[in-house]
Design brief:
Belongs to the ABC transporter superfamily. The chain is α/β, with parallel strands linked by helices and about 230 residues long. The chain contains eight helices and ten strands. The two termini are about 35 Å apart. The chain binds adenosine-5'-diphosphate (ADP) (2 copies).
């Protein structure tokens, strides 16, 4: 599904170059569930931004669904982002003035999906994340866990094949984090590919693969390696 070959990322600011990602190779197959772990500043967000076509590699080859990313225009990348990728962030990023229903419907408003079909998709997703009884609430009337479930429903409404999640449970207590992980796992079991940044080794163990990033160096780790540390 995704293929990274000798990909690097440097940032240059006032002649100071930061090597955010050292050359790495990685293949992500359809149906993978990958946890990205590593300390703050190690390059996790940079990796996710490249994977999600938000930033371009400094060198190397990245193919996204068989397309060489270098050859894509900004417009083509943005189209791929809305058709194939669902983004979930630590801070939820919901629109405060809109209710739950409208927040989830937003991505469809920009597509040509007819109103009736939009309603069916939104309601089916809200049911999947257990929020059908909250459709008229504004985000500030919801708990953090509920807000993240709205954000997940919104990320899924365009039926993406790939979910990119940056610390999706970072602001949540352990019960809410476990609920969000259960939703992600069940999506993965239904075939959605997931790349998830997490600080929690305990949550990382629930993925199928773990990639550790340290100082911009990516290393695949055995999931059992993490399981062992947690006993
Ligand atoms: P993480 O997500 O693991 O905390 P990041 O990917 O955000 O790490 O950052 C990796 C490194 O790249 C850090 O040294 C960070 O300061 C640097 N960096 C990230 N984004 C930028 C940017 N837009 N401009 C300059 N440096 C950046
Ligand atoms: P987190 O550690 O929660 O992933 P970060 O604080 O590393 O978040 O990064 C948040 C955003 O800021 C990212 O999009 C990253 O690319 C950008 N960023 C990080 N470091 C820098 C930097 N030194 N200069 C500019 N942008 C940066």
């Amino acid at each position: 599904m995704l293929n990274f070959s000798s990909v690097t990322k440097n940032y240059e600011e006032n002649t100071v170059v930061t090597q955010a990602l050292q050359p790495f190779n990685l293949q992500v197959s359809s149906g993978d569930f990958i946890a990205l772990v590593g300390p703050s500043g190690s390059g996790k967000t940079t990796f996710l931004n490249i994977a999600g076509l938000l930033e371009s590699p400094s060198s190397g080859e990245y193919t996204f669904l068989d397309k060489d990313v270098k050859t894509l225009s900004d417009k083509q990348k943005s189209r791929l982002r809305s058709s194939d990728i669902g983004f979930v962030f630590q801070g939820f990023h919901l629109l405060p003035e809109l209710n739950v229903y409208d927040n989830v419907e937003i991505p469809l408003r920009y597509s040509r999906v007819p109103a009736k079909q939009r309603r069916a998709s939104v309601m089916s997703l809200l049911e999947q994340v257990g929020l059908c009884d909250r459709i008229n609430c504004k985000p500030n009337q919801l708990s953090g866990g509920q807000q993240q479930r709205v954000a997940i429903a919104r990320a899924l409404v365009g039926k993406p094949s790939l979910i990119l999640a940056d610390e999706p449970t970072g602001n949540l207590d352990s019960q809410n984090a476990a609920d969000i992980m259960a939703i992600l796992s069940s999506l993965n079991q239904c075939g959605t590919t997931i790349l998830m940044v997490t600080h929690s080794l305990k949550l990382a163990q629930q993925a199928k693969r773990a990639i550790e990033i340290r100082d911009g160096v990516l290393k695949e780790r055995c999931i059992e390696h993490y399981a062992a540390r947690w006993g």
